[in-house]
User: Which sequence fits this backbone?
């Protein structure tokens, strides 16, 4: 495999790793409605602000989120909302898995 192709795969894996946590997925869901401050994100997902801030930093570093500061508050938004489409695809994979498992169970 060419080095350029491998580097691209590594970059893609980095983005996927940055969202591969239940709290980060919940944050993406919250941000699907638009820009939200850290305090509101923490409240909506039921986590401590410091914990959410660490997860936001990971996704910000991966280029998934954008941020802006207004006074003492930091607001976050999706840099590329198309990431939500990939999560819809994951739901479809889960539906297919469940359908397959249900079919297997019916045969028993």
Assistant:
């Amino acid at each position: 495999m060419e080095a350029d192709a491998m580097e691209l795969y590594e970059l893609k894996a980095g983005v996927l790793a940055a969202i591969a946590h239940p709290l980060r997925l919940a944050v993406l869901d919250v941000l699907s409605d638009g820009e939200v401050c850290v305090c509101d994100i923490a409240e909506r997902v039921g986590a401590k602000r410091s914990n959410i801030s660490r997860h936001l930093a990971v996704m910000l570093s991966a280029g998934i989120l954008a941020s802006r500061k207004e006074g003492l508050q930091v607001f976050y938004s999706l840099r590329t909302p198309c990431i939500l489409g990939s999560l819809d695809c994951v739901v479809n994979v889960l539906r297919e898995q469940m359908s397959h498992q249900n079919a297997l169970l019916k045969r028993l």
In short: The chain has a mean pLDDT of 95. Helices lie at 3-19, 22-31, 38-45, 49-61, 83-106. The first strand starts at residue 36 and ends at 37.
